[in-house]
Amino acid sequence: MRYRTFLIIPVLIISCAAAACRPDKHQLKEDDQEVERTIAADPNVVLTVCLGSGNITVHGWDRNEVHARMSDGMQIEFQPSTAGNSAPPKELSLGMTKGQPGRSKPCLPFGALELEVPREATVNVQGGDAEINASGVARLSINTQNGAVTIAHATRAVDVNTLGGEIAVANSQGSIKVHSVGGTIEVEDLSPAVAEDVCEVGNVGGDITLRNISHRQVTVNTVGGDLNFTSALARGGRYSFQSISGDLNLMLPPDSSFRLSATMQDEPDSDFAIKYSSTDPPPPDTNRKYRPIPRKFEGTYGTGDALISFSSFMGSVHLRKE
After folding, report:
1. What beta strand segments (E) does 147-255 contain?
2. What is the pLDDT of residues 47-87, one digit of tens each?
3. With contact defined as beta carbons under 8 Å apart, do 142 and 169 qualify?
4. Spatial distance between the Cα atoms of 31 and 37, rounded to a whole number of angstroms
5. DSSP 222
6. How do 199-204 and 248-252 pair as beta strands?
7. Residue 28: its H or E element
8. In this predicted structure, what is the pLDDT of residue 312?
9. CA end-to-end span of the chain, whole Å?
10. Residue 34 phi, psi dihedral angles, 5° rounding
11. pTM here?
12. Helix, strand or coil for residue 165?
């Protein structure tokens, strides 16, 4: 009997340890469930969100509320800037609770986050390795270290900066500023909300594509990537294209009218019969063997309604009739 007792005790100890280590099924279910939060907000509310990894989806809606839905059972809460004020907050941030009421961590570590915000809201997003999709919001400011950014139907302003991520902006209005390092950029069907709005695009190591841009001021810079621009020119518009080593390709309507100011090694390759008013002579061949020497080309096609400026260090420039 004593021998049997010695056998039973170790078995009980092992069984208890195994039970303690075994994941609780109810706990797993809680971890997998979605957590939702809703708060009344000013129609022009400014919402700030930070996510380490995962994805964020933002939609504009016709309610003066901000609604958040978070996966993985992560406990989230809003932090209004006007605590204790009965008026709907004009600024909000979303964070993860620390277990103490009224306190939250400013950055969500991971997960899938869905947001509904008033259409006139401003949404500021900080992301690590995060994919971001936004639609129907007035103003968007997005900074990520990786992950694709896709924006549609913004109505006031777009400002995107990403390292290694692709950027796509379509069917949007306002001031458009997008910059990437290593990712492709595609922007199309853009127009200004007011006359002063600009379209600025910059990339290092990735290609840039622009289609149907109605802004009167367009600035594009690329280092190591090709640039493709297909659009009509706005009357009185100013277009600046700068490249270090990528090719610049412009596809313009046959009835385009523009002045050309280019700084590059060779005359632009053009389908348009440009009348050059000033052209620097080619440098001596002896100099060209050692380093490229840029030349200045100035000319006009049509009545010169728009100004196109090129600056290319090693790439070529092509102007084609659409």
Report:
1. 149-152, 157-163, 167-173, 175-181, 185-191, 199-204, 208-213, 217-223, 227-230, 238-243, 248-252
2. 999 999 999 999 999 999 999 999 877 889 998 865 556 78
3. no
4. 16
5. E
6. unpaired
7. helix 25-32
8. 87
9. 97
10. -90, 145
11. 0.84
12. coil
d(CA 287, CA 268): 21
Domain boundaries, the chain: 27-135, 148-322
Residues 240-260 have a mean pLDDT of 94
Asked if 216 and 234 touch (Cβ cutoff 8 Å), the reply is: yes
Residue 104 carries which DSSP code?
E
Query: What tokens appear for 225 in the block?
Result: 């990537």
Strand partners, 222: 203, 243
d(CA 251, CA 24): 62
Give the pair of three-digit tokens for residue 62. Answer: 């016709």
Parallel, antiparallel or unpaired: strands 76-80 and 35-40: unpaired
- Please, what's the b/e burial string for 78-104 (b: 16 or more CB within 10 A of its CB; e: otherwise)? bbbeeeeeeebbebbbbbbeeeeeeeb
- Specify whether the CB–CB gap between 106 and 78 falls below 8 A: no
Residue 156 to residue 191: CA distance in whole angstroms:
10
* Cα 73 to Cα 58: distance, rounded to the nearest angstrom: 19
